[in-house]
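Researcher: Go.
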Amino acid sequence: MPKKQFLKEKKSKHAQQGTQAPATADEYLAAGVDFEEAGEKWRGGDAAKSTRFFLRAIDTYDVALSKFPNSFDLAYNNNTAQVLTSLVEALSDSRSAGNEDNLKSLEEAIELFQRCLALQELHYTMFHVQSEAMDTQDSAHVSDADEGGVSVSDPGSQPPQDDRWATIVEPVTNDTLLDTLLVQLEALTSLCGLMNADAGKGLAWVEEYSRTLVMEKIGVYLKGTGREGEASLTKANFISALADANFRCQRINLATYERALEESFGALDISKNPEGLCNKAESMIAYNTALRLIAPADYPVSRWKALSSALESLTAASKLLGADNVAKIHLLRGDVELLRAQLGKLPLCYDVAAKNSGTLAKNAEKFYRGAKNVARISGDQKELTEALVKEALAAGLEGDLERIHEAVKLEKGVSQEVLEDAVDDGLVSIEELSTMGLYNPTVATF
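Model: Structure:
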């Protein structure tokens, strides 16, 4: 975001104005930034309040742009606020909004990013044209001085003092352009994850839209940034998500899907990158989920191998210093073990999973316990509750029904959501929950 720098006189003038309505482009910009910052503040705790602040920022920028249409700062920040709002609305609570609404929000966000990138590219070009023109002028001045020009300025004089405020806008660089491009790919990755059918603008639109970003622009913008690892991982995440969506929508076959996964992560060295290891693991879990939904009675060996690979990556990530959200990593490790255990049950009845079902459930229980302990220390109540319920669920699958019923009573309401998600994710079946007395098939409620 372009940085603003004000002199003391300007700051005091703002303080005197108090809550007066903004009048200049910079005052509108400052008001919009204030709303954005308030939105960020509440983003983790109150999504509704966060969204309201982002919407106020949008309104502020829209009014300002109608009055000052040539302001680069306002146009840039308008995109930023709208994208953040779209992401908050689409991803903060997936159960509270329909998939069609989420798709629409993310598609809007992606288009706004594109507008922002086009604007940045324009300013990037203008900056370099102006720089070349200034270099030419400087060369001409040097030539005049070499021919004997005499300076008439007084060396003892001081330049006139200017008490006005100044605006400093950082030039658009390859780093700036790369930032916007990578966030576009991240938004496209999220969009692919929401597509359960070839809905919205469709995967053909995603492929067409992303082709220039992936095949042309990313290589150009990378020059001189030293961010090859970051860009490669973002690109790999997108390619794997697109392949997953294409397979689930039956636009590609399994062999093409597997080849895309291998090509996306195969060439990356992520052995010391916890984020990369977790991303790879999640792509393997998505692969298992796609096969479970499309061909539930087939491919047990492929699914076992994918889940085993995911577990290896998550285990490696959990041991690296600097890994973010270790509780989440342990939760995923527990999920993978329950997913592997499900392969030994109907309709697959994969013998390796069936013979080791008890061990897999115990492993899951151990990983969930680890997540619970980490979340308790970090103070993350949501992950703590999820880990507590899932730990008891794993114990219930081993036959300890008392623990799961006690956990459900202690965390009533939240536990229902955790169990619903567990069923949706394939960790446990409705029939198993019914056997444990956690689901009433007559009234279809937990």
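Model: Residues 51 and 89 are 7 Å apart (CA to CA).
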